[in-house]
## 1
Amino acid sequence: MEFSAQQIAQLLNGTIEGDANVTVNNLSKIEEGSYKTLSFLSNPIYNNFIYTTNASIVIVNKSLVLDKSVKPTCTLIRVDNAYESFAKLLEMYAEIKGSKVGIEQPSFISETAKTGADCYFGAFVYVGENVTIGNNVKLYPHVYIGDNCKVGDNTVLFSGVKVYHECIIGANCTIHAGTVIGSDGFGFAPTNTGKAFTKVPQIGNVIIEDNVEVGSNASIDRATLGSTILRKGVKLDNLVQIAHNVEIGENTVIAGLSGVAGSTKVGKNCMIGAQVGIAGHLKIADGVKIAGQSGIASSFLKEGEIIQGSPAFSAGDYKRSYVLFRSLPKLNDKINELTKLFNSKQ
């Protein structure tokens, strides 16, 4: 689809400098702009590219002062906030790209499944018995939905997502490719001989509330009993592991390659960096921030605390301790020097 500068300006309540009839059909970064692409400029670091870009339309702030003329092939649209305006366009662009409807073949949808209006089921989608799927749900090719699952309105499951039986996914969620929801929790009990393990049946489920986004190739294990829960607004990055009976509070974000062990409860509005490991049966208070690569071996019950290290403790204490860590070799040399001096005087 093509859009003119006039249409874009009307949508963003912007003013045009240049050709109002010029059209674009793609997006680009300003430094990589090409003919018929739309770009934006909000960071002053990239100001010089406004004079060299080949993008046909660039969204800029009204406050931008030009040192010279832009290329005659470049039309500017001035708005109050170029970054927010471009984000709005990206959102619309994503909606247009994801506006598929219908059922591709081959696919399997159980006769007992209930599906809403305006859904899209890609090729090789499997929808099991007694599944309930809301309106405007998008299931991309090779998605598997097990028996008795529920998927809310406007939720998107990208290619290869697997949702095991009995799991519930809310409205306006996005689950990226390759993620597994509801696989067995890691539950094994040692036998009397101590040489083998008996599998503990995992008969709970996973509940994902509204407005949650889960990155690609993440794993969210079903509960042993009860539910593993991701509360409203949770955001998980790629390759995150959520173990059985974990609860992640509202609007908490977890970066890639992090893992939360069984039965731990993480509060709301927490921020957890990449490669963080959190042990099982712990409690993390609301608003806690955990630095990347930290190891959490005990509960943190103080709201809003910032922690770091492995094992982790207060980030301020960690940074002061790190100064000492780095000084240990020099301190050791000084001790050896003093020891030699002392011995030489005996």
## 2
Amino acid sequence: MVAGLASVLAVSTAVAPRADDQSIEINSRLISHFKVGSEESRFGSFEFVGGIELSSPSATLGAISGIRLSDDRRSFLGIMDTGFWYAGRFERGADGALTGVTDFSVTPILDVNGESSDQKWRVDAEGIALRGDEVLVSFERQSRVDAYPAKAPGSARPLRSLPLQIPLAEIRNNRGPEALMVAPEASPLAGDVVVVTERSLNAAGDIYAAVLTGPLKGVFFVKRHPPYDVTDGDFLPNGDLLLLERRFSIAGGIGMRIRRIDGSRLGPGNLVDGPVLLEADFGNQIDNMEGLDVSTDDAGQIFVTLVSDDNHSILQRNLVLEFRYLGGEE
């Protein structure tokens, strides 16, 4: 959940437009059921509450890899792994379910020199999180976590880079920092930053991860269960971590799952694992699921929003899916 995202959305509204800013027309197709051919709504610890498939006349839409929602669950800010910020607003029905997207804009992510790039190895943005007056972005190939000013990240170069804690020699090519999260203040990590790599593995085959800030900073490991790899994550209000994972093979196709990790176990030297709360394949309305955000409404209900990366392929889709989190492990 992103506090004060209205001000963060200065990326597209409150600053003087950059010459390379783009407002993009977005078309939305409703997804009313998660399981293909079924009206079932309960899936493990989650209740599907609706989704949309996004398309656009603009070729810029796509490559969505992370998203964060505002407190009112209407505004959003995210990153594309092609080196762009995106921002906009969700349209919702009377029941709160997604119906569309408006005010969608895209802005290049700038580097320390104030420059954008079309070289993916330089701008492969994968994770996004808000911490105080900074927006944090993790980059996978040129591995780093950069901090941008939250007031207007789209017009600014990074203020600094956070020490990654994980030795660069242990980060595998195109398998680097993928999931980036900030723990709730009322949790064992008390607002500290956590990063999990996609598939940089130690000798035991476990995934490198780290707490980047605070007294518990240092490397820990997440148990890997092949063929799944980490794509994103976010914290529940109680401090437990939800990890989004993906699998793909020619024979087995695409799959995704969400695993819950005990937040009290996140710390130097630990190996963490946890129960699978949701698992889905092409029998469900999924694609290449890359982003996960946890948000809470005024009634205290917890929601999980997922987004997919279409890789700018006509064979893939840009999806936004929302679930109500019901708790429990199964």
